[in-house]
Amino acid sequence: MTTKKTKWGAMTAVGVLVIAFGxxxxxxxxxxxxxxxxxxxxxxxxxxxxxxPMRLGGQVKPGSVVWDEQKLDLxxxxxxxxxxxxxxxxxxxxxxxxxxxxxxxxxxYGPDGVFKSTSVMVKHSNEYKAPAKGERPSDMYKSLxxxxxx
Amino acid sequence: MNWKRASIAAATAAPVxxxxxxxxxxxxxxxxxxxxxxxxxxxxLQVFAPGQGELSRPVGDSVRLTDLRGKVVVLNxxxxxxxxxxxxxxxxxxxxxxxxxxxxxxxxxxxxxxxxKGTAWIAEMGGQxxxxxxxxxxxxxxxxxxxxVPETFFxxxxxxxxxxxxxxxxxxxxxxxxxxxxxxARQAAAAPAAPAADTGANTKAGKVQ
Amino acid sequence: MTRLxxxxxxVVALAVTTLGAIFGPIAxxxxxxxxxxxxxxxxxxxxxxxxxxxxxLVYGLxxxxxxxxxxxxxxxxATPTFYTIISLWGALxxxxxxxxxxxALYAAAVVWFNRKREGNxxxxxxxxLLVVALFFHILLVGPANPFLPVFPVPFDGPGPNPLLQNHIxxxxxxxxxxxxxxxxxxxxxxxxxxxxSGEVADDGWxxxxxxxxxxxWAFLTAAIVAGMWWSYEVLGWxxxxxxxxxxxASFMPWLTCTAYLHSVMVQERRGMLKLWNLxxxxxxxxxxxxxxxxxxxxxxxxxxxxxTGTIGYYxxxxxxxxxxxxxxxxxGNSDKLASDGRLDAPLSRETAxxxxxxxxxxxxxxxxxxxxxxxxxxxxxxxxxxxxxxFFNKMTLPMMVALIFLMGVGPALPWKKAAGxxxxxxxxxxxxxxxxxxxxxxxxxxxxxxxxxxxxxxxxALGVNVQEFVRGANARVRAHGESWLVALSRLVSGNRRRxxxxxxxxxxxxxxxxxxxxxxxxxxxxATLKPGETxxxxxxxxxxxxAWGRExxxxxxxxxxxxxxxxxxxxxxIEPRMNYYPTQESPVPTPDVKSTLRxxxxxxxxAFKQDGSNVTVKVIWEPLVPWIxxxxxxxxxxxxxxxxxxRKRPASAPVAPALAExxx
Lengths: 150, 209, 664
What we know:
The structure holds 3 protein chains of 3 kinds.
Chain A: H1 4-32, E1 33-37, H2 39-45, E2 54-60, E3 66-68, E4 73-79, E5 84-90, E6 102-109, E7 114-122, H3 137-140, H4 142-145
Parallel strand pairs in A: 1-2, 5-7
Antiparallel strand pairs in A: 2-4, 2-6, 3-4, 4-5, 6-7
Chain B: H1 3-11, H2 13-24, E1 44-49, E2 62-64, E3 72-78, H3 83-98, E4 104-110, H4 115-124, E5 132-134, H5 139-143, E6 151-155, E7 161-166, H6 171-190, H7 197-208
Parallel strand pairs in B: 3-4, 4-5
Antiparallel strand pairs in B: 1-2, 1-5, 3-6, 6-7
Helix pairs in contact in B: 6-7
Chain C: H1 2-29, H2 36-62, H3 69-74, H4 81-86, H5 92-114, H6 121-141, H7 173-183, H8 185-197, H9 204-234, H10 245-270, H11 274-296, H12 311-333, H13 349-381, E1 385-387, H14 389-409, H15 420-444, H16 449-480, H17 484-494, H18 496-521, E2 523-529, E3 534-537, E4 540-552, E5 555-566, E6 569-574, E7 577-580, E8 588-590, E9 592-595, E10 599-608, E11 615-623, H19 626-643
Antiparallel strand pairs in C: 2-11, 3-4, 4-5, 5-6, 5-7, 7-8, 9-10, 10-11
Helix pairs in contact in C: 1-2, 1-6, 2-5, 2-6, 5-6, 5-7, 6-8, 7-9, 8-9, 8-11, 9-10, 9-19, 10-11, 10-13, 11-12, 13-14, 14-16, 15-16, 16-17, 16-18, 17-18, 18-19
């Protein structure tokens, strides 16, 4: 019921559509993919690493955290043991954020050597951990716990 | 039924299945460690849990990584609050025991925990054959780029990080990695004199697999 | 005791399904229809056994029987009973039990309703259902066994994942998702049954499964909307959709299933697209299994992924079997699936459905490629990448906008060939509403092209679809002299499928308005406040009153009381919290939302001083977001209208039974 001619025509049309789709997808992926790098890998890229969306993974360098709660301004360094990158972020750090914590920050690295982060995620295991004495919220936030909700 | 067309169509599933099969062999959450192949960061830490019998070291003794050159070192980061550490405990303890007298040093490193709890945990688990050291402030953990516990590092006899294992280890993995590192060490030592050691090393490594 | 009962039920069910799956084809081959009762008995017995096992597990959870490994893993004496019961699907093993139960339920029901049907379609469909059930039983006795003994029996357990016990929607979303996912096994089984029995050129499998497919689709739709709602209410970033692999996994089968619901009408009306429909249904099922595989095997990193052991390899084997078998069957049967009719005119409802299917399919492939790309990139180039929102938004927005446009054009187009004048009259209300919406969006400050187009086409689709109800009801008022409301209800009940579809379209319009509104006009701000200080976002002023803390049985809570001000008057009190679970390293932020028809005020507690002297809060003004949930509800109402039995009309016989599309 279909002649050879229309069959080939249809196949060509499908082929063209698939190629066009593939090309569009490729273009979309190429410009929108977010690479995952460690500080060492990012530094090794030099100028190639500037101003591209990426995720940087490593640990918060102990003693590097500067947090201004009034201006909501957070600065810290991410290290992987060999390299370190200064990160600047607006907004409060996540709760578990602390020295030595594994973090993944998303954002762009600029020629000024500062990684402008749009989000800071803490890597933590969901494993069971009983809080040490003094770390339980009822110990830490004693005064708050005494002012129950109205 | 058009068998030819059916078979060709079925064959197109192969690359997809292949991709998934490959994907299962790796962990998408693992973050590339900069360490393997590099010199292991040096440390000096105090023993808080002595271990048992032949492998034991007195509490309070300082362990310097540089003193362990020439030995294969298995560095296991653990904590008493870590559930997965319970799974690997007996594997580590038993395998370490079985290498007693050979140039292998197993060492536990306590991560984000207090020694008292660590000692209690070891007692609860029925003892541990090798010693554990405390890592106050997790400084060594940071040097090693630790993301969580348990993580196990295998250092070769020259003091380089050869492998890193994330998550609980199994006896098979432990033996295979320790054996191949010991074989490599023997080979390096024997290489100038006797190239025949090569075959011996391979059979040794192959057998445990 | 409970443990043994639960486990042994599954072991017996495994044996029963295996026997049934082997015995069924033999009975059919030998032509012994009297043997089929044993095949169907296997289906019913499987249901009874899995029900027993599931009940036993629930009993184990409620009675805190920590000698069962699953209870020891997710149970805790401090957890409220409601969350204890729903922790049945809170972790991997339990969710597989629940899955197996839903599958057994569907299989038993669909076989029961069709047990008397002639031909080999139903027996083969029953065998297919048993094979799928068999796979889940293998998981339950193997890598996902929730019934392992625990010794020594612990006194207490860690409790379920806090994220899952933080909100009531977690009691709703997973069962809906399973009902949807698993429900799609039914049309798949009948599609396979049609191919195996040689009845593939006939529409039988489509007609039998019509209501099942619409129901499964409705559950899946509800699940996706509930999932969006959950992540909006719980995760604290103020969004509802992040193109996370888990979200994509539920969205991809929805796309192909929605395409199927449309294209199947072309087959029923015109005898076209038979092969295509078969492909869509089989593809939908493969996508449900693929989605489960991606999220349960840990192959792709996601915030929601379950942690796993060897289960991935079992899923891989199952996907391989399903893919190879279905590709083989579909391609082998493709000769029998030639079209009876052909396309008459470019401007017809058929064309609208074809374009609809093209866009839905391309949409699905875009999402699939984006989801799998990190895996491909690492396999091919050895780099770790993630594909985030920018890619998906950029690639899918044009398709969404086009689909919404088609949703307006399609209902106005008649089958075969459109006449110009009538078409104009049908489209005019849509054009008017569309322009009003677009102008309103422009006035409100929308400058993004897609956003204005989304408002334009949403209005257009709303106008055309509502117009269909009005026009039909008016015709009845004229013809039968009924009152308008009676006319409307008789119109709908006389052709439920058609008007159910239009109702669903109106639901999609509402969702579109919510999504376009919130993504265009969203405003957010973060600030550190002392008591009495205020923050203003998009004209809404919030005052920080005080921070507080309290002890709850299973957690400790720190909260901030914020007042939404209207001048000097307090309009509403909003209390974002931070929940501390004893078993979790990090606290779980719990945002609080106050909804109005115009939009939501969304508050999240980001940080606080230890003594409560100040807090850092994020305030988000989310315009039109409640319309998304409302739209989801309307979508489901549309589906319910579509599956209810047609009203008997003794006076005028329907055009064609069960598939009446009515007078266009």
